[in-house]
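By convention, the token line describes the chain's fold. To illustrate:
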Amino acid sequence: MVVRLAVNVVRFIVTFFVATVAVFALMRAIPGDPAQISLGVNASPELLAQTRREFGTDRPLIAQYFDWVSGLPQGHFGVSFVTRRDISDMIADRVQVSLILVILSMIVALLIAVPFGTLAAVRHRRTSGILISGISQLGVAIPGFLAGIMLVVVFAVGLGWLPANGWTPPGQDFGDFASRIVLPVVALASVQGAILTRYVRSAVLEVMSEDYLRTARAKGLGKLEALVRHGLRNASIPVLTVTSIQLAALIIGAVVVERVFVIPGLGSMLLDAVGNRDMLSVQSVVMVLVAITLIINLIVDTLYTVLDPRIRKQA
């Protein structure tokens, strides 16, 4: 198990640094001079040269890359070309907001998917099972930002029950935080919950056809009891894989939802940086999103070893 964990950590490190090269190269492939964008078209050549020295963009690309990547392990991302603020401080403020939104959304999505997906599998030939499958299929077809707009129209504008947008830190006013986080969490969780419900249904249906579950039922256990005692752990392995993929997708999907609800998270920071052509901020935020995704995959690979005795035996 230790060897497998070490291999996963090495894979994480290698993938991360390959991603840094790819992101840096793509950012430099975008036309435009950061100094010219920052100062405007009427800037003098002397001022442009001075600004390029301040930004470090007058140095060779390989030197710029190593300047940037050497600071990543310590959380040093450099200074924004536009706001002239430390990017690390901005990311530290924004990432907390995004993680709160994403984690709450995934918890709610799993609370929806696990019971309803299991029920849809157990009752797959009955009206209730068919109805759950149909609703989940409809949920898959609705993008998160559209669900957010619909929720705002109904619950904020129409009924006036909840605020339409904005953000309050939970430590400042928890009641206001709770009221403002409901709609974005529901917007993200409803879509992810629908997707995960279908995967839970498929995984449980596959487990229900296994011989060991039929044996358990032959010994006198009911369908649901046999499934809970002997089947759900095996069904959790493919669901765990899909959950990790959807969690990564949820992080990316939160970018647009944050803009819809005016939430100051990483997504809003990324969109602002793209609009301002703030190249260094864009590549830093993208690398943070990549790092979060890779950490999720590392955790899931470790959980595989815990849940699946076959992998544990091989390790």
In short: DSSP finds 13 helices and no strands in the chain. The mean pLDDT is 77.
